[in-house]
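Entry 14. Structure prediction run on the chain below.
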Amino acid sequence: MRRTAVLVCGVIAALALAACGAKTESGTPVAAGGSAGSARGAATFGTVADLASAVATSSRSKQSAHFSTEVTTAQGTMKGTGVYRQDASGVSAQYTMSTPQGEMQMIVVPNAVYLKMARLAPVTGGKPWIKVTPDGTDPMSRALGGLLTAMQEQADVTKAIDRIKAAGTITNTTRETVDGVSTTHYTIKVDMAKLAEVEPDPNLKQMYQAAIQQGLRTSDDDVWLNGDNLPVKFETSSAVNGQQVHGTASYTQWGEPVQITVPPADQVGQFPTR
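Output returned:
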């Protein structure tokens, strides 16, 4: 159970990270406040707060996107693909990830997260899915229910960028082409102590503080925006106790309809309470 919970937490972190198969060409520096030129003339931003505001406005007007992720740690590599949608009810996402322990599927809806792994079926009466809710009494909900808000927010790239606006500083801006798309590339240095200080979610604050105690002082984040200020790629790198953690996430098909369906009730089991 504990190992499964740790694995799920890794998947949650992956949703906030970075991209599968994005190819970056060498870039040309752009002065802060200048023109992004090849990125269809989009203005560049001097602060992470301005960048986050622009991304939020652009992405929420589109409401949906496809994404892919890749996260590499000392324990191995996790890759995944998925779709997400945001509307008046909140953020929803459907995601499939390959992990060293096998494939995991995750469906995020405003009030619950559904998880599917082959290794779970033997302890859930053969049901392929389990459901995590903030007030659930089953072991998985008790272990992860407090992170439900984080799971939902991490599915939304605007939240991932918005989270670092008070703790991040833009250190470089360049024009680059990513998978044939003209972009503006922002390099951001994140102060982890400041990030923990301003984090309102107590569970995430605790996670950040634990990482700081293990030696994580700063995180290097990179964001590539197209001419409409929509994310094309998001990347993060850090080192904890001398071990590198690197993640990338790419975004495509902004605004195209996506289908997210929760599993039927007869396919959802739960861990035994004893």
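The longest helix spans residues 48-62.
Filed with the rest of this week's runs.
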